[in-house]
Design a protein that fits this description.
With 268 residues, chain A is α/β, with parallel strands linked by helices. Chain A has ten helices and ten strands. Chain B is mostly helical and 262 residues long. Chain B has a domain at 44-63 and 98-168 and 195-259. Classes of the chains: A alpha/beta (268), B mainly alpha (262). At the A-B interface, helix 2 and helix 3 of A face helix 4 and helix 5 of B.
Chain lengths: 268, 262
């Protein structure tokens, strides 16, 4: 598909973020097109989750701009940001459901806060969203009473409660068994294809990446290694990418930060 | 040395600024929010009122009744020497209403409710629940702080009144049993020297203490960092800082009331 003809929904231009004394994100630029499943992959600590926090406006970039629908989210007021956020859904790595509310109230929360819908209708919508993630009948359970995989699905139901345009997923399959992970991937694809939701997925689950992605960006130490379609990434000659997708312990991605061996350290 | 003093001062000023900022935010969501189509939600307010207020009645009752009894015995010990045991009644009533009931109730509530608020908000913070609210465009101050603030603001003075009454009951019990005063005379003396201003200066203190407890507890909770240990630290800090500020504010308010002859 020719990307130049497509509508850009999120655009990062030379984004840099410094946390403490570390450049967590360094001069990152890419575009996300409407309706795509865009996957951000990279090792733990590569800055993936920070990128997600930048895109949802929880963190502000130190340099560069982040445009959502052409509006720079670092330069708008809190009220305008909240308006944009109403078109967001976000699935957190550990679900981040409110412990004090049961499953139904959790999914209903964005509806109760942002719409004037009748309670009766809200309950119907909640049922609908819960059946979409295969959890009908679990309305009265509290987050502490259900499994991690179920919590993630409730989190997903909550993320899509307001029929958002964009859904952000922070490691949607981590900590799930392979079958549930597969189901979660299928859910993400269904939502994207059937409801035309733009999805931004942060993950390091390679199986999942090649199952769902329309486009992929590989991040390493806060920098973009490559952006492209999954086949381009798979066939890339870049040593970082080859090491990452094949999970090889040797290669340019070094596990040890310093070259000095433990023995040298001890003998100092 | 100078460096560490400087760092301490900067950290303290930052915290003070943070608490004041939270106060302004809270007032904004209580008074301006409703005109922006965002009224405070009633259900959580009632829920917090039950938790902070109704469930604290028993402990406030016990703390105050025993304080009243101790006060009666200790003052009788002094007043006996002057043959003025009957004034135990008014002394107990006045010192309870002006001073002891507001302060002790506030300390009990800071320990029971303030710590619970810090722990709850703190664990919500470390499990990304606060962040989740923000990404859902739900303001955490409006959603979490406002109900707790309003609940404490009304329940702490109410509990103080419970404390006033229970303390006087304690004094009455000692006065009429071990001090052999007649119940009629005790009640008469109790109210004869108790002016309305004694009660409302005490309640004014309670309102101020409620603001302190709610703001410190919420601030510490929302600024929790680093897992379970961080939650524990936030809870401890919340209680310790509230205690110190309550006593400090009590001293200031008493001075103001005393020197302005209220």
């Amino acid at each position: 598909m020719d990307n130049s003809q497509r509508e850009v929904i999120i655009s990062l231009k030379n984004v840099t973020k410094v946390l403490g004394s570390v450049r967590v994100i360094n001069n990152v630029s890419f575009d996300i097109y409407k309706g795509d499943i865009f996957v951000i992959m990279g090792c733990s600590g590569s800055g993936k989750s920070t990128l997600l926090r930048l895109m949802t406006g929880i963190l502000k970039p130190d340099e560069g701009n982040i445009f959502i629908h052409g509006r720079d989210i670092a330069k708008i007021s809190g009220k305008e940001l909240d308006e944009i956020r109403r078109n967001f859904g976000m699935l957190f790595q550990y679900s981040a459901l409110l412990d004090s509310l049961d499953v139904e109230e959790n999914v209903a929360l964005p509806l109760r806060e942002h719409t004037k819908l009748d309670d009766h209708i809200i309950k119907i919508i909640v049922k609908l969203k819960l059946s979409l993630v295969g959890l009908k009948g679990f309305e009265r359970y509290y987050p502490s009473e259900i499994s991690g995989g179920m919590k993630k699905r409730v989190g997903l139901a909550r993320a899509i409660a307001l029929d958002p345009e964009i859904v952000f997923y922070d490691e949607p399959t981590s900590g799930l068994d392979p079958v549930v992970a597969g189901i979660t991937d299928k859910l993400i694809m269904d939502l994207s294809r059937k409801l035309l939701i733009t999805s931004v997925v942060v993950t390091h689950d390679m199986q999942s990446v090649f199952r769902i992605a329309d486009r992929v960006v590989m991040i390493h130490k806060g920098e973009v290694i490559q952006v492209g379609a999954p086949e381009e990434i798979r066939n890339s000659s870049n040593p970082y990418i080859q090491q990452f997708i094949n999970g090889r312990p040797e290669g340019p991605i070094d596990f040890f930060k310093e070259d000095t061996s433990i023995l040298e350290d001890l003998l100092k | 040395m100078i460096e560490s003093v400087g760092r301490f001062i900067i950290a303290t000023l930052e915290a003070v600024g943070g608490v004041l900022g939270l106060f302004v935010d809270t007032l904004y969501w209580i008074f301006v929010g409703p005109f922006r189509n965002k009224p405070p939600r009633l259900r959580p307010i009632f829920y917090q009122m039950v938790f902070a207020g109704v469930r604290s009645v028993l402990i406030v009752f016990f703390v105050a009744i025993f304080t009243g009894m101790v006060l009666a015995m200790q003052t009788a010990y002094q007043l006996e020497k002057m043959g003025a045991v009957i004034y135990v009644a008014s002394l107990v009533a006045v010192s309870l209403c002006r001073e002891l009931s507001p302060v002790l109730t506030a300390l009990v509530v800071a320990g029971r409710v303030g710590s619970a608020i810090s722990a709850e908000l703190g664990s919500m913070k470390v499990t990304e629940q606060i962040e989740a609210l923000e990404t859902m465009a739900i303001n955490p101050v409006r959603f979490l702080v406002v109900p707790r603030f309003i609940a404490l603001f009304f329940m702490l003075p109410a509990l103080t009144i419970v404390g006033d009454i229970s303390g006087m009951l304690g004094g009455f019990f000692i006065g009429t049993t071990s001090l052999h005063l007649s119940p009629d005379l005790y009640i008469h003396t109790n109210f004869k020297y108790l002016a309305l201003k004694d009660i409302y200066t005490g309640l004014t203190k309670a309102f101020v203490f409620a603001v302190i407890i709610a703001l410190i507890a919420c601030f510490e909770g929302l600024n929790t960092k680093g897992g379970a240990e961080g939650v524990g630290r936030a809870t401890t800090r919340s209680v310790v800082i509230s205690f110190v500020l309550i006593i400090l504010a009590d001293c200031l308010l008493t001075a103001i009331f005393y020197f302005s002859n209220v």
